[in-house]
Amino acid sequence: MTTTAIEKPGGPTALRHDPGAVRGPRRRPGRLRTLGLPYLLLLPALVLELLVHLVPMLIGIVMSFKELTQFFIRDWGTAPWAGLDNYAVSVDFHAPVGEALLNSFLTTCLFTLLSVGLCWLIGTAAAVFMQETFRGRGVLRALFLVPYALPVYAAVITWAFMFQRDNGLINHVLHDQLGLTDSPPFWLIGENSFVTLLVVSVWKGWPFAFLIVMAGLQNIPREIYEAAALDGAGVWQQIRRITLPSLRPVNQVLVLVLFLWTFNDFNTPFVLFGRAAPEAADLVSLHIYQSSFQTWNFGTGSAMSVLLLLFLLVVTGVYLTVTSRGRKSADA
Fold this sequence. Notes:
Strand content: under 5%
Helix content: 55-70%
Distance between the termini: 54 Å
Strand order of the largest sheet: 1-2
């Protein structure tokens, strides 16, 4: 739109806007500016990621190659170079250090397998049940999310009091009221500590699975279930033929996240058992902490941490490769 000057006789010059006129060329933002905007927006997150995760991880890798003990804590850079000795000690399964690490690793694998499986099973069952409309469904959904919303330390400390032998609620119900045990069992020491750890982990983990699966179920049209019901499909057939295949992409991400969270869980065993966990519940995260801060051998502890990182990277890569191939074959 342009402006044209019109001279009126005996008066000032008037301005007339011509809407039909062709506009001039508009300046386009530079290509460099357009491409650089996403990176500029990501810059704060990248800086925080660098400072919080990458730099400490690189320092830990360097420490794993040093003979870093309590004598070099003030200036760890002066610690003598150990090469691969810390790694050799960690994987020597015939020596006490390597044998203890192997037992802790196997315990963690069993614990992770049971915890992730139970969290997924309970969360999926609750999410499928909550798809039906009934009175009080909103309140029940909110109650299901309470374990996930509670602070970890507050929840685990509460469970630690409940599992006390003499005055805990668990033994009061099992032994005093129901009479299921001959004597009040110990839950925070001995073999029962693994069961205690598993119960607490599943209790605080399954609401996350419930939340993710419930969100995935919202994308499945109800017409599919109605058509299946008209064809004579029962509830279990609908779950097996419709629900689970439709939730496959959601479950693939959910299982991976639960696996990484559970395998690296440090807060739960530390709050339940303190600095020294029982052998039956000696998870690898707490074991590395004990190897580093109780024996003051930070070089060996760093080597164990690097080995754990490599294991998780390999498992994650294999899992993503297998699941992506399964997704492609299913789509084909």
